[in-house]
Amino acid sequence: MATLFDGVRQVAPLIVAKVYSSDWSCVTQDQIDAFAAATRDNQWIHRADAEHAANPFGGPIAHGLLLVSLAITLARECGALEDATWVLYGFDKLRFRAPVRSGDVIRCVTMIRGTKELGDRTLLDARFVMEIKDQQVPAFVADCLLLRASKALRNGDLVGVRPAD
Description:
Elements: H1 8-15, E1 19-21, E2 25-26, H2 29-39, H3 64-77, E3 86-96, E4 105-118, E5 121-132, E6 140-148
Antiparallel strand pairs: 1-4, 2-4, 3-6, 4-5, 5-6
């Protein structure tokens, strides 16, 4: 069965510049705590037991990299990314603009900026904007490169991959 990214040259004009919006999703303190445990980043600004009066954000906030991880998942769930194996290749630009507090509701707005065929793989250039419900300033804006890997992807296969300029 053909997929969205089969024959990138044929479908690129159809997907480039299209905007996808995920459903709204609540960021919970349990997610923040689990991310802190996994990364050993237990900085006090992320903890629910922190003194709120001393916290410049008015309460615990989500880790920036937790939000980036959620963006990729939300982009997949809204159809911006084909259900395939995507490997994070890198970021050309990532700016954290506003904190996401525990209990805030977010969504990821994704725009596909371009694609490039690399043999049986596809390099996808996407912009993620993580919006916070009822706020003007997004949590972050990121220009992200994702590599759609074939099943034959092996250690070292990323060497020599060059992003589209």
